Amino acid sequence: MSYTTDHVEVHVCMGTAGVASGGQExxxxxxxxxxxxxxxxxxxxxxxxAAKQTGCRGLCARDVLIDVYIPGKDPIxxxxxxxxxxxxxxxxxxxxxxxVEKWAAKADYFQFYDKQKRYVLADCGRVDPESLEDYxxxxxxxxxxxxxxxxxxxxxxxxxxxxxxxxxGGGFPTGLKWTFCRNSPGDHKYLIxxxxxxxxxxxxxxxxxxxxxxxxIEGMLIAGYAIGCDEGYIYCRAEYPLAIVRVIxxxxxxxxxGILGDKVLGTNFHFKLKLKEGAGAFVCGEExxxxxxIEGERGMPRPRPPFPxxxxxxxxxxxxxxxxxxxxxxxxxLKGGEWYAGIGTEKSKGTKIFALSGKVxxxxxxxxxxxxxxxxxxxxxxxxxxxxxxxxxxxxGGPSGGCLxxxxxxxxxxxxxxIAAGAMMGSGGVVVMDETNCMVNVAQFFLTFTQRESxxxxxxxxxxxxxxxxxxxxxxxxxxxxxxxELLLELGNDIKTASLCGLGQTAPNPVLTTVKYFRHxxxxxxxxxxxxxxxxxxxxxxxxVDDRCKKCGICKKACPVDAITxxxxxxxxxDREKCVKCRECIVNCPFNAID
Amino acid sequence: MATEVKETESAGKEIDFTACDEICEKYxxxxxxxxxxxxxxxxxxxxxxxxxxxxxxxxxxxSAHQIYGVITFYAQFYTQPRGKYIIRVCRGTACHVxxxxxxxxxxxxxxxxxxGETSADLKFTLEEVSCIGACGMAPVxxxxxxxxGNLKPEDARKIFRExxxxxx
Lengths: 595, 168
Fold this sequence. Notes:
The complex is a heterodimer.
Chain A: E1 8-13, H1 16-20, H2 23-36, E2 49-54, E3 66-69, E4 76-78, H3 86-95, H4 107-114, H5 132-137, H6 142-149, H7 152-162, H8 174-183, E5 190-195, H9 204-211, H10 213-227, E6 231-236, H11 241-256, E7 272-277, H12 287-294, E8 318-322, H13 323-335, H14 337-341, E9 351-358, E10 364-369, H15 374-381, E11 391-396, E12 402-404, H16 415-421, E13 429-434, H17 439-453, H18 459-476, H19 484-498, H20 502-506, H21 509-527, H22 554-558, E14 564-565, E15 573-574, H23 584-588
Parallel strand pairs in A: 1-2, 5-6, 5-8, 6-7, 9-13
Antiparallel strand pairs in A: 1-3, 3-4, 9-10, 11-12, 11-13, 14-15
Helix pairs in contact in A: 6-10, 6-13, 7-8, 7-10, 9-10, 9-11, 10-13, 17-18, 17-21, 18-19, 19-21
Chain B: H1 2-12, H2 18-26, H3 34-45, H4 50-60, H5 64-73, E1 85-90, H6 93-97, H7 100-111, E2 124-129, E3 141-143, E4 146-148, H8 153-165
Parallel strand pairs in B: 1-2
Antiparallel strand pairs in B: 1-3, 3-4
Helix pairs in contact in B: 2-3, 2-4, 4-5, 7-8
């Protein structure tokens, strides 16, 4: 970190997770404390303190995170900060000069960052997302200034040289996509930023927009200039209220500063930008559906060709790029395509942001170079599996992706290796699962999602996913039939081949990969009517196994309906009349003693 | 139950269309204005009842069935009245593997409502949403605009009971 200030500055994480953990209260407490102690004196270097809101710095599991910057000293990070801790931190550290060691982040915090390379996220956590001035102070809008001195073709060449591929999931080369739209005849072209991040388990786009909205706007200006677009839209899902507020403010500020609108930065390039709020439909992440939604219609995809580059929004040539793709552009322009191509693997360049969640110690947002292995991502960056449990599977690529197993831990994470292993990069959701997660249940979960979100236009997706879900529902409730696995495979392959858009073409993937790698679990559900991970409630007996029970009584405390009898030194007993099968006892038992 | 409330509400009362008309007027020269108009009218009136949909259709020079086509496509348009407190239980992957299904069940145990339903006293609506995007603190719920993370099922129950105690 090379951020410096000329006064005392405390950065408070105010991303969604930071706010939910009490970020605003910490900001207010800091401000009150500075006021009370007369530490807001602009005249004096030592007595000029400010609390600054910043975006997500990644390690959401430890929010509220704050960084204390004192001129001439290394910044100090505190984790799990609450408003009550603020007076002590101000008193001992900022005034007294002694770090409050017991709350300061330790080695395990920094381990999270060791293998990361933060370029796109570099300023998330440093810049005030609601301040254009702050963005400019950190070198913002220098890249578009540089791009405007180049020809559009030179800008495209630089992006081609960088080898940047679309970060929304497909991995299509960005420079090539731009060329199609640039060469498409038409005097009015649209650039659309796809911020309809619908994959459950992915939140990198939200964090970029919330943490550094101007970087996305700058990326759009660069892309718009290169392609020849004079109008742009950011299509953001409505579930991200904070991102929407921040992007609207950023657009307004950039317009007032002459960065957006007519004559961008005094040149002959014009670029108007608007925000469109989604209304809750996963399929709108598909580019033709997204375009239909901006036009005010039902967001249903249409067959391609014609591609949006030829006939897009209101029949005009249009180019759709994902948030993360756009946020990569400023550094490619400033540092050059060759610099960028030096990071990553042969066919997947640069860094990729992943949302690490599920059964992993350090959940949060990480940016790593392409080619890092699954093991490094989960165990080195993520810190491994909590509660001493065993790693069982990792789901990559959201509802379109697949599950990988412990055998795949050495797989490098890049577009092509993941597809070869049966998963996909997708938008970058990484959900880690341990031995208590049932893979049939996970497949059922994803299919419930895609089935609900299927727009219904084409039959394979509409009816096929419903049929697959019915089969999974009966397997998880003990009604499975011997031929069900084969039927799932057959249906899955047909749906993949025959569906109209990416949603249907990938919907069966979670089922297909779990059958491939965890077939024995499906068989246990169907033949033995047992859920080995004890997640499918219908298949659990809720009986305490005598020789595994260590007589600790934790299950009794966990039971919300008082169905468990236990006394010191006795094996617990579950009254199955009272039991509501909520699984609290199973989740809490440290000895796996309930079957 | 929800339908009954709606009928009694709109039957006797005169509906004030001013806000709806103003919103439509603001967007009259926009291309593709349907979604923002519906969002803002819904914000102003709480939900999209049939009279208001007809009015929007007239104002935008569209047919009501076109408007309903859009309304029914998107999850965030509502044709039924909603509770004062919207409980959004995140059912994203990260929340799912951390047990968020149980939290929905607790909402049902406490208020007798399932996904998409509103309690008879119009106090609570349960909405299971795909992903709030706060996976780092799974399982997560939102009650109106406030986010609660790292929830144990019984902690969630306590929070729900606190809201139930609130007046009105």
